[in-house]
Amino acid sequence: GAGVSQSPRYKVAKRGQDVALRCDPISGHVSLFWYQQALGQGPEFLTYFQNEAQLDKSGLPSDRFFAERPEGSVSTLKIQRTQQEDSAVYLCASSLVGEGRGNEQFFGPGTRLTVL
Amino acid sequence: GENVEQHPSTLSVQEGDSAVIKCTYSDSASNYFPWYKQELGKRPQLIIDIRSNVGEKKDQRIAVTLNKTAKHFSLHITETQPEDSAVYFCAASTESGGFKTIFGAGTRLFVKA
Questions:
Q1: B6, A42: Cβ pair inside 8 Å?
Q2: Tens digits of per-residue pLDDT, B23-48?
Q3: What residues in A contact B95, CB-CB < 8 Å?
Q4: B103, B89 in Cβ contact below 8 A?
Q5: How many other β-carbons are positioned within 10 Å of the β-carbon of residue A42?
Q6: B18: alpha, beta or left, given left = phi > 0 and alpha = psi -120 to 50?
Q7: Of B32, B89, B95, the CB nearest to A42
């Protein structure tokens, strides 16, 4: 079956521009996560959804970052007034909660954001 | 806040030798510990995981051990092969309040043929 998909795969933005990154999780997966991965580093937690509810957004670095999952499926991560330090790969992951190996997260290919 | 430390950052072994990567975590509520392999330019993929009620788990050439008292866990790869070369990430996850997952900084493993 289809895995987690993300779009766009690459995004170049000018400093100050707003961007929107999309994640399509595996169908039926309850949980959805967003991570930021800088070059040579591990994924850093940004936010977590269970269905449409955003249960944890403690990792969002500033109020310029906003995520939503209005119908409990597709999610969008929006970054307003992008800064150079926002340049990173943004990874989305989904998991099926509460069933056997429910914690296993399946990652998308990521969106590489470059802010000039 | 929660933290996961991973060592070493780089590991080079000869083909056929074993490789060991170690992680420590700070949040005593953590109860799920996955390991991910990430090849260059690709997404992280789960290779093995362990829950807090188990001390050791093995899957063919890879094994993970967990010491909850000391709050550390390790990945062991035996009979390494060149295709094992990648970056490996440990992580710690806590079920209460959600499944927030904290990743280590990664270990770049080189297996020399």
A1: yes
A2: 999 998 898 899 999 999 899 999 99
A3: 103
A4: yes
A5: 23
A6: beta
A7: B89
With cut-offs at 50, 70 and 90, classify the pLDDT of residue A89.
Answer: very high
DSSP string, A17-76: --EEEEEEPPTT--EEEEEEE-TTS--EEEEEEETTEEEE-TT--STTEEEE-TTSS-EE
Residues forming a β-bridge with B97: none
- CB spacing of A42 vs B32 below 8 angstroms: no
Helices (H), B36-108: none
CA distance B111 to B113: 6
Q: Tell me if A103 and B97 make a contact (CB, 8 A cut-off).
A: no
